[in-house]
């Protein structure tokens, strides 16, 4: 059976992330400035969006392994485009909140199913996750830079453009994606292999670190901006941090891909090193008042992102068989969604109770704990569960 071409997978993955990048930067601004709702309400809407996305991740992971994966992608795309078209024509409160949750549900299904497709492609292309993350970062950077301009033209331009991007993605999926052929599972006689407990421990440790990373990362997307404004640093300079992030990923990730050969050992080492770098970034902005300290912190965050967030899905995929590849890949998406849901509220509560510096110190400590948990991560030795990729 023919395999989906890597170029088509990467194009669709980039289109999905461009659609996300258009919407997310202006959501809080639109709710607060145009719909005249409080920042607490805006945070609640974003939390519902992330929780709906988490539900979509779970549903897609199960459906990917039990139905035809292409149909799962279609379902997610239809929900996403439908919600965005409705937002284009009726971007009013309170309908906005419900449509934003529907958008999150569709996006969760789409993201998890796309990761499942990429996971199957890793059998023939060991670097597919790195390539996918690079393309996603480029798409996200272009879209984030465009969202402000479109927002000034009117909110309908933002939602309509995102709907158009997801429609193009839908066409690419429909015309170029091939059905997935799964290997037949080997029949097992006798008691079940005890390797499953080690599998669960390893996956739980990876997922926990990902949740911690995303809880911290959300501080850069939300509470760090308030801190910078408090110190007289402009919104434009804050926005420039994410330009630094995108440029650093575009320039350095291909170098890392060339220097580090993908394998189980290197994937695990990159996740550990990336987790430590994420933690270190918060130490760098403790008691920070000068702009260069925040730039340095973002540069270290981006190094952590290049290492950990590109390698975690690949590491998880090394524990998968063709029977559970979808549900295991949804674990990475689900961890990110949970972290994004918890991050802004948890960060705000900690900052209110203890201040920024103690919050950043606590984030560093929690990252160290998460990295220590990676000591539980062990390769699966059973030959029946080995990955088809090189290691």
TrEMBL record:
It is a multi-pass membrane protein. Keywords: Cell membrane, Membrane, Transmembrane, Transmembrane helix, Transport. It is found in: Cell membrane. One of its GO terms (molecular function) is transmembrane transporter activity. GO terms for cellular component: plasma membrane. It comes from the Bacteria. Pfam families: MFS_1. The keyword Membrane applies. The chain crosses the membrane at residues 7-32, 38-60, 72-90, 102-120, 132-151, 157-177, 198-217, 237-256, 268-285, 291-310, 331-352, 358-377. Residues 202-391 form the Major facilitator superfamily (MFS) profile domain. PANTHER family: MAJOR FACILITATOR SUPERFAMILY (MFS) PROFILE DOMAIN-CONTAINING PROTEIN, RESISTANCE PROTEIN MDTM, PUTATIVE-RELATED-RELATED. This is Major facilitator superfamily (MFS) profile domain-containing protein. It comes from Schleiferilactobacillus shenzhenensis LY-73. The lineage of its organism: Bacteria, Bacillati, Bacillota, Bacilli, Lactobacillales.
